[in-house]
Specification:
heterodimer; A: alpha+beta; four-stranded antiparallel β-sheet; B: alpha/beta; Rossmann fold; about 15% strand
């Protein structure tokens, strides 16, 4: 299993568009993906599960990936959240 | 790919489609049919039929209507015998977002069944979440 903490820099937190793009990216990988925030863990491939975390600007989230392409998945998802595309 | 058509009263379908495209960044394929409140029913039926035929790429079309028993739903139901469609009523954004995710990989019947559950599961009382996080905060104190 791979894991990484990411601080959300977008001024809107993880909103609908970002959550959709994140989940779509996650679905490209075979590995299981989870997102945790504030003690709750959800499926990182389910857009509305991610939205249910109500992730605010500045929050730190934990992304965990587990499976055959866990390294690539983690790298892609953390890269996305740290990029301007996640605004 | 399963086609997706939103069919609803007034401008609702167009607004849902526009919001869906904004959220999904244009991923997937969906279209909208707006039925005016005073529309002629045979004319409306033809409009809906054309939209469904245009959206069908051979795997059928998921038609999302706003209200079971309303004119848009009734018109779609009247087309069920002629076209390969599944009609899901009470459309909401969770249903549409999930439809876009499923339309490339799922068959029509499976997709419709999943969307029915998904639409229901994603109606929340925000206060339930707040109670949950309050309780968690207290247990950590």
């Amino acid at each position: 299993m791979q894991k990484a903490k990411v601080k959300i820099k977008s001024k809107l937190g993880i909103h609908a568009r970002t959550a959709f793009a994140f989940a779509e990216k996650g679905c490209l990988f075979k590995s299981d993906i989870s997102v945790s925030s504030d003690g709750r863990k959800v499926d990182g491939k389910e857009v509305l599960d991610i939205l249910s975390l109500a992730i605010m600007p500045g929050a730190s989230i934990l992304i965990e990936t587990s499976g055959p392409d866990e390294v690539e998945a983690l790298c892609s998802l953390t890269g996305f959240l740290r990029s301007d595309n996640a605004d | 790919m399963v086609g997706v058509v939103i069919c609803a009263h007034g401008g609702l379908s167009g607004e849902l489609l526009s919001t869906l495209k904004f959220i999904t960044g244009g991923a997937g394929t969906a279209s909208a049919v707006a039925l005016d409140h005073n529309v002629d029913v045979p004319k409306a039926r033809e409009m809906v039929k054309k939209a469904i035929i245009d959206a069908d790429h051979g795997n059928g079309v998921l038609v999302a209507t706003d209200l079971y028993g309303g004119s848009p739903s009734n018109i779609c139901i009247s087309l069920q015998g002629d076209l390969k469609i599944e009609i899901i009523t009470g459309v909401n954004l969770p249903i549409l977002i999930k439809a876009v995710s499923l339309q490339k990989t799922s068959d029509l019947k499976t997709m419709a069944a999943k969307l029915k559950e998904y639409g229901r599961e994603n109606i929340h009382l925000a206060s339930d979440f707040l109670k949950e996080s309050d309780a968690k905060g207290k247990s950590e104190d």
